[in-house]
Amino acid sequence: MYKLDERDIQILSILQEEGRITKTALADRLNLSLTPSWDRLQRLEEEGIIESYGAKLSSPFLKNFHLVITEVELESHKEGQFARFEDAIMGFDEVLSCWSVGGGLDYILKVLVKDVSDYQDFLKRVLKANIGLRRYFSYAVLERVKDTEVVPDSLIRRSGVVKNPVKPNARHG
């Protein structure tokens, strides 16, 4: 696996906050010329560390929708049941995220709907699809206290994918 250095971490930090930054502005922020900055960016993309670029929708816009966290338990853990559920759930546009989890549940879904009635319609379609649900629990999100996809620099540095990571409390000088 590709090992990150401090400049790579800077690039990731900048791009997570400013995905539309120009290549020239990125090079300026990194205090590099355009070619080395571009080479680093391409390497991060080629290594699959940067997967894509996108727009984050505003909180006021998202207030037009309701977010529901749904816990799912399957009827059976026999061969093929997980794949059957996962393949089917990909076809539901309302499901923004689906996580396979350990413990007392099998999956946690992040579901975005217009309103409660829309969520009920979604559930009816999921149940009608006969994809092996034993039971589910729904939790309406009342307020987004913290909701980010940004991975902090401090966590990247502790991840084991950094060349010569700076040790906490290390003195420089």
Describe the protein's architecture and organization.
The chain is elongated, with a radius of gyration of 21 Å. The protein has two domains: 50 residues, Arc Repressor Mutant, subunit A; 82 residues, Lrp/AsnC effector binding domain/regulation of amino acid metabolism (RAM) domain (Alpha-Beta Plaits). The longest helix has 13 residues. The chain has seven helices and four strands. A four-stranded antiparallel β-sheet has the order 2-3-1-4. The chain has 173 residues and is of the alpha+beta class.
- Decide which structural class fits the backbone: alpha+beta
Oligomer: single chain
How much helicity do the residues have? Answer: 25-40%
CATH topology of the largest domain: Alpha-Beta Plaits
Number of helical elements: 7
Shape: elongated
Main beta sheet strand tally, sense and closure: 4 strands, antiparallel
Q: Any low-confidence stretches, pLDDT <50, length ≥5?
A: none
CATH class annotation of the largest domain: Alpha Beta
User: Strand order, biggest sheet?
Assistant: 2-3-1-4
| Structural domain tally | 2
Indicate the CATH architecture of the largest domain: 2-Layer Sandwich
Instruction: Calculate the mean pLDDT score and round it.
Output: 91
Question: Any key phrases for this structure?
Answer:
single chain; 173 residues; alpha+beta; Arc Repressor Mutant, subunit A; Alpha-Beta Plaits; 2 domains; four-stranded antiparallel beta sheet; 7 helices; 37% helix; 17% strand; elongated
